[in-house]
């Protein structure tokens, strides 16, 4: 039976803890390790402190078979990865002349002088397997300590990726005889909450071994991640496909796509398929809906444009909404939303139009509390739907949720042939 290895990823650098740099290295490494069947059990981030880095390494050693460490290999005093590992293991660093020569060549090629502290990057552990850095100066190292393999790489993403791709992954596949792969698929659902979806598929979630099934929530939608481990990618994908069919047999009416497909992509594809053009009139969303669509390739085939009618004056002067309607009903009203959708459809000669009006906050408007939103959809000389919602959160969250809800409405109306 093939051994199951536990992998862990540690990012070293105070800048990661301060949020100045996102730890994208860990995400990328996890994704690549899944391709060769290595399961990542832990992610850690530690600042540039010798004692804390050493404790972090000691903790990882006690629970993981392979530890990937990024960062802390630079030439400055706060680059402490080597020193922390030396303190933990009692191993002495020594100058590697071959690495030092490579550093000299790198600086010479770039018309720069090697400084004294760059020699620090040529200090390696005597029994380490050196990983050449073809982009920068700091080499990587692979060192074993008490049956745990430590793989040290620079924190600069392009340097780390070069080492992983060219050396580390082939090395691991050879040394560990890795034959399995891990594949995942993210099924995407909208119009159903996480708790409701999990309740519906509870029997599948409870009875899982391989593939595993996990519901995940995000703003305005839900995802179900299916992960399979198999000898080949084809086998894993077949297992995922079978489990996907089980999930969709229960909640398929809420499903709109998988992996990188977004709800705006799903709406755009339906508009193209049905050869329908779309326009928008946006008040509180202020152009966010238009941005969501025009960010996608192919939007020009169907999207006519959007009128950002943020003020009452623009609603009257551009969209030709009667002043009497606004005085009687207010701008935050079902009547205003209907009129906005109808007028922008006529102005832009669109088959379908959607409008957004409401109160993003933080203060109330026209007696309506923050988070009050009206969305209306118009087609073929009639208003198809106008809905009132109340979203809780700050003003930008309310605006984003309004766009997501508008896309949801469009998707189901198009999918069910009601547009």
UniProtKB/TrEMBL annotation:
Residues 8-174 form the MoaB/Mog domain. Coiled coil: none annotated. It comes from the Bacteria. It holds the Pfam family CinA_KH. Belongs to the CinA family. This is Putative competence-damage inducible protein. The gene is cinA.
């Amino acid at each position: 039976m093939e051994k199951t290895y536990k992998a862990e990823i540690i990012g070293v650098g105070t800048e990661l803890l301060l949020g100045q740099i996102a730890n994208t290295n860990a995400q990328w490494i996890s994704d690549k390790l899944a391709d060769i069947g290595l399961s990542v059990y832990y992610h850690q981030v530690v600042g540039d402190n010798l004692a804390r880095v050493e404790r972090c390494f000691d903790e990882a050693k006690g629970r993981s078979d392979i530890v990937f460490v990024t960062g802390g290999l630079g030439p400055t005093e706060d680059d402490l990865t080597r020193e922390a590992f030396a303190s933990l293991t009692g191993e002495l660093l020594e100058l590697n002349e071959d690495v030092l020569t490579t550093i000299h060549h790198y600086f010479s090629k770039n018309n720069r002088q090697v400084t004294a502290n760059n020699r620090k990057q040529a200090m390696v552990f005597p029994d380490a397997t050196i990983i050449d850095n073809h982009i920068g100066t700091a080499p990587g190292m692979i060192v074993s300590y008490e049956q745990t393999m430590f793989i040290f790489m620079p924190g600069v993403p392009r340097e780390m990726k070069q080492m992983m791709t060219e050396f580390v992954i082939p090395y691991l596949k050879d040394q560990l005889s890795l034959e399995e792969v891990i594949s995942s698929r993210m099924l995407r659902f909208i119009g159903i909450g996480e708790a409701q979806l999990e309740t519906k598929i509870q029997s599948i979630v409870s009875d899982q071994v391989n593939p595993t099934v996990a519901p995940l929530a995000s703003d305005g939608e839900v995802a179900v991640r299916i992960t399979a481990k198999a000898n080949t990618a084809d086998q894993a994908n077949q297992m995922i496909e079978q489990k996907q069919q089980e999930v969709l047999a229960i909640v398929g009416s809420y499903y709109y796509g998988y992996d990188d497909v977004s709800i705006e992509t799903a709406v755009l594809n339906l508009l193209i398929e049905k050869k329908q053009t779309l326009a928008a009139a946006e008040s509180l969303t202020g152009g966010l809906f238009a941005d969501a669509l025009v960010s996608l390739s192919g939007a020009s085939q169907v999207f006519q444009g959007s009128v950002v009618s943020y003020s009452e004056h623009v609603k009257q002067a551009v969209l030709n909404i009667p002043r009497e309607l606004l005085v009687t009903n207010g701008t935050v009203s079902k009547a205003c939303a209907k009129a906005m959708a109808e007028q922008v459809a006529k102005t832009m000669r669109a088959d379908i139009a959607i409008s957004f009006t409401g109160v993003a906050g933080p203060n109330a408007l026209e007696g309506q509390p923050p988070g009050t939103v009206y969305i209306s959809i118009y087609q073929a000389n009639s208003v198809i739907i106008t809905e009132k919602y109340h979203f809780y959160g700050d003003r930008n969250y309310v605006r984003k949720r309004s766009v997501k809800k508008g896309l949801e409405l469009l998707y189901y109306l198009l999918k069910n042939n009601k547009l």
